[in-house]
Design goal:
By secondary structure, the protein is of the alpha/beta class. It has one domain: Rossmann fold, CATH 3.40.50. Helix 1 links the parallel strand 1 and strand 2.
């Protein structure tokens, strides 16, 4: 069984993430969405909220593709998480050349730590290449419109968040 791990903070989950999940699900028999616990990034959403947002979006994809897709929070090294879930491949999404330099370094380090786990890069669809969670959060914090960047269920949460901000 080919098990893939698609890691990220997913804060928030974007349409670009959903695109990568959908496409990665056709490459493996089981897809694990590794939700990184990284409080140093000051997440907008709690771990529980991020997992719930992902779960809402992956259920229809799993049914459509006929594979098991699950969320798996992790706080250890990515390569250790991959070993924990028996992944043979790590899936990474690329949006731009600037992403590649960081990802290239990570692959090199991961290869030293565990040469048996491959990394596969999927280019974001053209319509999603400009979407970055960091920018979506900034737009939401400033009261801008984010519906073109995130699934509807995430949009509702972002609206709720932006309405809670102090005046």
């Amino acid at each position: 069984m080919r098990i893939g791990l698609y890691p990220g903070t997913f804060d928030p989950l974007t349409l670009g993430h959903v695109d990568i999940i959908r496409r990665a699900s056709s490459l493996v028999d089981k897809l694990i969405i590794g939700v990184a616990i990284n409080n140093a990034k000051s997440p907008m959403f709690s771990l529980e909220e991020r997992v719930q947002m992902i779960d809402e979006e992956i259920i229809p994809i799993a049914i459509e593709r006929g594979i098991k897709i699950i969320t798996h929070p992790f706080e250890n090294l990515l390569i250790d998480c991959a070993k924990d879930v028996d992944a043979s491949v790590i899936v990474r999404g690329l949006r731009a050349v600037s992403d590649f330099e960081y990802e290239f370094q990570m692959v090199g380090m991961n290869r030293v730590l565990s040469s048996g786990i491959e990394t596969v890069f999927l280019m974001a669809d053209n319509s999603y290449q400009s979407i970055a969670s960091k920018l979506v959060k900034e737009i939401a914090r400033l009261g801008g419109k984010t519906e073109e960047f995130v699934p509807e269920s995430v949009q509702k949460r972002l609206l709720s968040f932006s309405q809670q901000k102090p005046d």
